[in-house]
Amino acid sequence: MSEKFNQQQYDKTVKEYQPKPSLIGNCLRAFLVGGSICLLGQFLTGLYMDLFNMTEREAGNPTVTTLILLSALLTGFGVYDKIAQFAGAGSAVPVTGFANSITSAALEHKSEGLVLGVATNLFKLAGSVIVFGVVAAYIVGIIRYVFQAIM
Q1: CA–CA gap between residue 77 and residue 58 (Å, rounded)
Q2: Would you say 34 and 89 are in contact if contact means Cβ atoms under 8 Å apart?
Q3: What is the pTM of this model?
């Protein structure tokens, strides 16, 4: 009983001294950085459409590839981590955040070798995301097929 009381007292004391996050400031930084990443993506799409006479749909793949490349390079140079520390959730825009997490895992384990270090740890995160994406797409496809058959 005294352990639980001490744990409750400890939790209360920690909560008193824990810094209070600025909700509005965090949201504003996340919005500005996430919006800037999306703005860069939109700029790249327009650039690919103008330079290579692509449709918006065709420009999507090179835009995503460029964002992934930039995110991986910035992670490798240690810049993306500083951006993420400032922006919080705003830097977790799906494509760039995923590229950052995969590149970080690869860099963290590079001392273990190319195959056992980089490759295996690279795909620890990517594998689960890919599996979830494939399973989710399969389920959505079945649901769409059932609704089309009914209608």
Answers
A1: 30
A2: yes
A3: 0.72
Kindly state whether residue 11 falls inside one of the protein's structural domains: no
Is residue 17, in this structure, part of any structural domain at all?
A: no
Reported as half-sphere exposure (CB side, CA atoms, 13 A), residue 79 has a value of 7
Give the burial string for 105-142 (b: 16+ CB within 10 Å, else e): bbbebeeeeeeebbebbbeeeeeeeeeeeeeeeeeeee
Domain that holds residue 146: 22-150
* In the block, residue with structure tokens 């909700």: 23
With respect to residue 65, please indicate whether it lies within any of the assigned structural domains: yes
- Angle made by CA atoms 51, 55, 56, in degrees to the nearest 5: 100
In a domain, 1, yes or no: no
73-103 pLDDT, tens digit per residue, is 999 999 999 999 999 888 887 789 888 988 8
Cα 123 to Cα 23: distance, rounded to the nearest angstrom: 34
Structure tokens at 119: 């490759």
Amino acid symbol at 40: L
Q: How far apart are CA 3 and CA 7, in angstroms?
A: 6
* 95 CB-contact burial (10 Å; exposed 0-12 / middle 13-18 / buried 19+): middle
